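Memo to structure team: turn this sequence into C-alpha cells by end of day. - J.P.
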Amino acid sequence: MPEFDPEIFFAQLYSETRDFNSLEADLWTFQYRHNPAIQAFCKELGTDQPVSVPIGFFKHFEMKTGEWMPETNFFSSGTTGQIPSRHPVKDISLYEKNSIEGFFAFFPRQRYRIMGLLPSYLERSGSSLVHMVKTWIEVFGLPGSGFYLHDFDSLRKTLEESAALGERILLIGVAYALLDFAEEKPIQLPPDSIVIETGGMKGRKEEMIREELHTRLQAGLGLKRIYSEYGMTELMSQAYTDITGRFRPAPTMRVYVSDIHLNRLIEPVGVSGRLHIVDLANVYSCAFIATDDIGKMYPDGTFEVLGRLDTAEMRGCSLMVNG
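Reply from structure team:
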C-alpha cells in the first residue's frame, strides 16, 4: 500500500467528486499507523479495524498523528474543576480553509457584515469558535464586521446601520447572549439575515429546549428562521441545521449512531444512541471520535442532538437540546 500523501488527500477531500468511504479508509490506515493513542486503544480492544476513540482522549493524551509541533492549540471551555480538551493543530490554515468551505456548503457564497456575539469564548484563549468567526471576518466579512462582548447598544446600532445599507447580515452567537440581546434590544432584521446560535446557556436556562429558544429569538429579531451550529474543540468541521431543523454535516464530516453501551454496535436509522463522528479534516489528530452526545440519525444523513450521556461533563455546545 502506498504511503499516505496529505496533499493528494486534501485535494480529493475538497473535490466535488470525493469518495468519502475511500478517504475514510485511507485516513484510518494512516492514523492507526502513526497515532500512538489510537494504537494503544485498538490494542486494548484487540483490533486494527476502524473504531471511534472516546472524545475524552483529548483531555488526557497527546492526540497527534505523526511527529510535529502544533502551530496552535484549541482548548474546550470546561468549567472550573474540569480538565479541558486540547486539540493540537499542525496547520491552522487547514482549519481556516475548512471552516470557510464548510460555511459555504450551507449558505450563499457572498460577503456579509459579520457580527460575533461570543462573550464567554472571547474572554478566554484557545477557542476554535472564535478563530473560525475571526477567519470569516477576515476572508468574507464586509467593513464594520467584528466581535461584541456585552455592548448590546453598539451591536444594535451596527445591525441597524448594516440593514440601512442593504448589506447581508450574519450574526453568530452563543445562545444565552443572543437571547439576552433579542429580549433586551429587540429589532426587526431584514428577512435574508442569517442568525446562527452555537448552543451554550451558561448554566442559566438549561431547561429551555431548542425550539423554545428559536421561537424567542425569532420574536426578538423579527425573523422566520434561526440556524444552529454543531461543532466542538475536537473537530475541524461543523454541522448546521437545514430547513428540517436537523443538523446536516459538512461534506468533510459523517455522523453515525451506536448503542450507548456497545460503541461498535451501529444502531439502525431512526434509533437514538451515542453520536460518532468521522471528521476527514482531522488528518493530523484523530478523525474517528465517539462523542458524549446522544442523538438520532435520519436516512438523508441529517441528525438530531437529544442530550448528553449521563456520565458526561456538561459543555457549552451541548447544553441546548431538542424537545
